[in-house]
Design brief:
Elements (H helix, E strand, L loop, with lengths): L4 H24 L3 H11 L9 H12 L2 H13 L8 H4 L17 H13 L5 H9 L2 H12 L15 H9 L11 H4 L18 H13 L9 H8 L2 H12 L19
Helix pairs in contact: 3-6, 3-8, 4-8, 6-7, 6-8, 9-13, 11-12, 11-13
Length: 268
């Protein structure tokens, strides 16, 4: 008998979280020096609720209306007093450029959680924190949903001089000699992410990806469940970080989130 879609989704989430916890335990114990430094950095860090993104995504997909999306589009294109237009950095189509990441097609739950995390100080970036503080909870959900429904062509390309073959190996196989699992073991076989929990990596701008790996290492981003990404980033050498960032930029970006009402921004 065919399983209902909600049961399949719940099963996928359970399996992925099981892998996440297992990898987190392995990575946290791979090196005594890394473990002690991570514990010191995490001592005052608030806990991360791994299912919050899933709940936010469900809310966005069930509650955001066409009117909400139109209001979100105004914020994206024009901003308002105290809020600059998202398009100034991320583009009208959400494709981003350089250090401004691609937002188009990222899951709404993931995007909403990131805005909340900026506000909570789990991600440190002066401009984004200021922006997040000016948004209402409903605006956060609507903006996340708006960008999730955008679909744009690939715009990223390797720019860091990274070893693309090494990047491919790290993405698909990982390197357990340095305690690094395959990126796609959590982020999906195409690098398009898994539900709202694990974001797409494929098609992202390499300079942004490299910057985020540095943020995990430097402690300016501490919003990963069981601190997994901190440990992964610490296991990557400088050359490996360049390699994986450049390789991911060669892949096609994720497909947009579909809605019954809106198929692309021209419908708004």
């Amino acid at each position: 008998m065919k399983r209902p879609m909600h049961e399949i989704t719940a099963l996928v989430i359970t399996l992925v979280l099981g892998v996440l916890v297992t990898l987190g335990v392995i990575l946290a114990n791979r090196d005594a020096g890394l473990e002690s430094s991570t514990q010191a950095r995490d001592a005052s860090a608030p806990p991360v609720a791994p299912l919050r993104a899933q709940k936010l995504g469900a809310q966005a997909r069930s509650e955001v209306t066409l009117t909400d999306l139109r209001a979100a589009r105004v914020l994206v294109e024009q901003g308002r007093d105290g809020i600059w237009a998202c398009a100034e950095c991320h583009g009208l189509d959400g494709a981003g450029k350089g250090l401004a990441p691609r937002l188009a097609g990222l899951p709404s739950g993931y995007l909403a959680k990131q805005l909340q995390d900026y506000r909570a100080g789990l991600r440190l970036h002066a401009s984004m924190q200021r922006l997040a503080e000016t948004l209402s909870p409903d605006e956060v959900i609507a903006l996340a949903r708006y960008f999730a429904t955008l679909e744009t062509s690939a715009s990223a390309a390797p720019r860091l001089g990274g070893d693309l073959e090494r990047g491919r190996v790290l993405a698909y196989e990982g390197d357990w000699s340095v305690g690094v699992p395959a990126c796609f073991s959590c982020h999906g076989s195409l690098g398009w992410g898994v539900e709202d929990l694990f974001p797409p990596l494929a098609g992202q701008h390499p300079v942004y990806t490299l910057r985020q790996l540095g943020a995990w290492i430097g402690g300016t981003r501490i919003n990963s469940p069981v601190r997994l990404m901190e440990e992964v980033a610490l296991g990557l050498s400088r050359r490996d970080r360049h390699a994986i960032a450049d390789f991911l930029a060669t892949l096609p970006p994720p497909r947009a989130e579909a809605t019954p009402e809106v198929t692309d921004a021209s419908d708004l």
